[in-house]
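Quick one:
INPUT:
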């Protein structure tokens, strides 16, 4: 929670995390999907919310602690994560729904969520090498199926690909942008969203290229 608050304080207009669902149905935010419990590693999906250490926040706690005035990108871990996330956001912070981005690497998982979105966005998380049909066909598929964005590693992107997906009204997102020499070229390409662990570097690069960000 301290890292989320600091990111927003430093100027980020969005937060990102992986989301897992506990054995008792609570979506929580954690990267690895397991925690140490009594000298052993246990998967989050095998544990109740009350068994998790305090540093693992529930999604509801993030919304209650940070509000809803930011974009929230969540990598869905497990088939039940999407519906659980949507249920919590509807109950705790419905104003966040238009800025909620649900990411998964399998299109059928995303498409199953489409009837339940109420304004939330769907994101195809992939790598360029996994797009066997080619980027243009993928862009057309995403547009026709109502997938809002594609998220790839920064090394997969170039200006032509950004333009291609924009032509199909698909937003473009890049991850693992940790340094100025990576951030600034992607911003100049017109990328729509960037994920960085170093919020201060990200914001310095953003302001240098594009000025003050708007939500």
């Amino acid at each position: 929670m301290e890292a989320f608050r600091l990111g927003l304080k430093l100027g980020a207009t969005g937060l990102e995390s992986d989301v897992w669902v506990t054995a008792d149905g609570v979506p929580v935010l954690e990267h690895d999907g397991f925690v140490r419990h009594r000298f052993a590693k246990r998967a989050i999906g095998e544990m109740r919310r009350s068994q998790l250490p305090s540093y693992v926040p529930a999604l509801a706690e993030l919304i209650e602690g940070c509000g809803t005035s930011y974009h929230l990108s969540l990598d869905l871990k497990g088939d039940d994560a999407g519906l659980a996330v949507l249920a919590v956001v509807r109950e705790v912070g419905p104003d966040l729904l238009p800025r909620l981005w649900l990411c998964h690497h399998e299109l059928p998982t995303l498409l199953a969520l489409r009837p339940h979105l109420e304004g939330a966005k769907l994101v195809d998380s992939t790598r360029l090498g996994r797009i066997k049909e080619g980027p243009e066909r993928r862009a057309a598929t995403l547009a026709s199926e109502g997938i809002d964005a594609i998220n790839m590693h920064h090394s997969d992107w170039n200006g032509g690909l950004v333009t291609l997906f924009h032509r199909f009204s698909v937003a473009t997102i890049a991850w693992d942008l940790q340094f100025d020499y990576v951030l600034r070229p992607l911003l100049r390409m017109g990328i729509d969203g960037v994920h960085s662990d170093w919020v201060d570097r990200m914001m310095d690069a953003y302001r240098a290229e594009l000025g003050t960000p708007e939500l």
